[in-house]
Amino acid sequence: MSTNLTTILTTLNYFFEVINWLILIRVILSLLRMENMANPISKFVIIVTEPILEPFRKLQYMSSYGRNLMLDFSPILAIIVIQYLIKPIIVKLVLMFMG
Predict the structure, then answer these.
(1) Can you give the pLDDT at residue 63?
(2) If residue 64 lies in a helix (H) or strand (E), which one and from where to where?
(3) Within 1-99, where are the H helices?
(4) Fewer CB near the terminus (10 Å): N or C of the chain?
């Protein structure tokens, strides 16, 4: 495996890890009721994670089961989809085009 390919795969891995951590930080902020746009760190986390979480939140509310739940499962769904669907597809595409 070439050095460039290793660098790209390592960078992708770090990227997805950062996304997962930001989603977890968003969950913690939400649980501690510290989600507000006045705090710059909280604002950054919300701005970065909202485009990721919103489709999963809409999907949850569209389902007959999720509509009545009081918990937001969008972070869990997002992390599972990112880890087990999006990340492997992107890694395979990189390996297919560069490997």
Answers:
(1) 84
(2) none
(3) 3-31, 40-62, 74-81, 87-98
(4) N
CA distance 10 to 20: 15
Is residue 13 a contact partner of residue 95, using CB atoms and an 8 Å limit? Answer: no
Q: Do residues 34 and 42 lie in contact, with contact meaning Cβ atoms separated by under 8 Å?
A: yes
Type of residue at 32: L
Tokens representing 55? Answer: 């489709």
Give, to the nearest 10 degrees, the angle between helix 87-98 and helix 3-31: 170
Q: In whole angstroms, how far apart are CA 88 and each of 12, 69, 91, 92? A: 10, 30, 5, 6
**21-75 residue pLDDT tens:** 999 999 999 999 888 888 899 999 999 999 999 999 999 888 887 777 888 899 9
Nearest Cα neighbor of 35 from 58, 53, 17, 55 is 53
pTM, 2 dp: 0.86
